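Before relying on records like the one below, remember that each one covers exactly one chain. Contacts with other chains, cofactors or solvent are not represented anywhere in the record.
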Amino acid sequence: MRELLPHRRRGYAALAIGLAVSYLPLATLTAMVLYTFGIREGFESADSLSLSEIPTVIAFLMVAALVARVRAFVGGDGPVTGARARAQAGMMAAECLGVALLAALTGDGLIDASLVGAGASSLITAVRVTGWVRTLPPPPAPDPSQSSPPPRRGRPTRKKPSPKSPPSTPGPSRSTASPPRGRTAPGPARPRGRFTPPRPGRTASQAPPRHLFDGRTPPAPGDIWFATVPFDDDAGAKDRPCLVVRTLDRHAEVLKITSVDKSEHHNYARIPTASWDAKAEHDSWLERSPLRQVSYWEFRRFIAKCDARVWREVQEENGVP
């Protein structure tokens, strides 16, 4: 899902579309269940149940199952299992029917109660998915170097010919003449544009939001975790060990770890694997750079603490206190 929703703006757009598409199927399924329970106030005749044909019911059930899988995905770590999806489907049914029954007891008809129940379930889904969308990175800022001002329209203006200058008279040469009034003498050329000093890098870590980990201990600098780490070209990601270097508000900065022999590459450092894999026949290799941003939703399992010697080298190279 991270490949389909690379940033926060697209995530909110997908959430709005999904809620709008799933609202009517949830309300219709809720109305059908209430009808079987004998709640038929405000329902004129059975002929109005034309939407309850078998193909339509199957399509609506598929939409509800898709919403349940999305809720299962944002509500836990790791791949979505059938048990988690069924649990979310049961919670959605309880939300729709529970609120709809309460609305029917207060005097609402079948249709109004079904709409209220589906709305309550959609609101809970929106709250759960919004928490996951907020962990996505913000949309990239536009590159000002690629934007050019639009061409000006209108008739081009002609330059008036400058009057002929009078014949020159003997006097001091231009090299020794004083500068015009109000100007300074020419000096060394200055760079064009506004100069902005480089901003210092962020070195202090921030505590991750604990509610994202459901009671588990969140990642901390110096930890080794299994997480979904993006590739160099951002064309995908892989579940692999990584070293947490810095924790921020919505993501962590990590260095990837590979089991492929990188002894001939200067950008890799040997890291012992006996602390988390006693069956390993050889050590792994830690990529020194670059730091990769990984959302907290992509962290799956804590492995071990990093080797003390390797962690001291990483702290010195990345300015981590």
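The first strand starts at residue 223 and ends at 230.
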